[in-house]
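Anyone? Bumping this.
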Amino acid sequence: GAGVSQSPRYKVAKRGQDVALRCDPISGHVSLFWYQQALGQGPEFLTYFQNEAQLDKSGLPSDRFFAERPEGSVSTLKIQRTQQEDSAVYLCASSSWDRGETQYFGPGTRLLVL
Amino acid sequence: DAKTTQPTSMDCAEGRAANLPCNHSTISGNEYVYWYRQIHSQGPQYIIHGLKNNETNEMASLIITEDRKSSTLILPHATLRDTAVYYCIVRVAGRDDKIIFGKGTRLHILP
């Protein structure tokens, strides 16, 4: 079956622009996670959804970051007024209750803010 | 902070076994050892996990010491496609919770 997909794969934004990153989880997966990965570092947690409920947003670095999953499937991570320090790979992962230990990751969106 | 310690990088000859060590001296009784890897330009991929017994699947073997303070991931016959960053993680299994990654070990498979 299809894995987790993310779009766009690459995004170049000018400082101050708003961007929206999309994640399509594996069909039927209840849980969805967003991570941010800076160059040379491991992924760092941003936020977590269970169906449409955002249960943990403790990793969002500022109020410029906003995530939603209105129908409990597709999720969008929005970054407002992008800054150069937002340049990173944004990874999405999904998991199901019966295999809660395994998160399946998408390929990521590489964001470059100029 | 990550609860594991791994070497920054390792080399392994193609066709040989790659043995990746991990220290997790503060692991709790209900925490499992998980391994993920991340091939260049891809998202992390689950490899294997275990509690205290050794585990084996089609990708790798996991050897956990009796005191559970360290473990070794074994890729029995490394290929060039195994070149990746390998992350050792400790977390409670069966709980839908974020993964805390460290910096991992960058494994280079040499032809």
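Late reply, but here is one note on the structure posted above: The mean pLDDT of chain B is 93.
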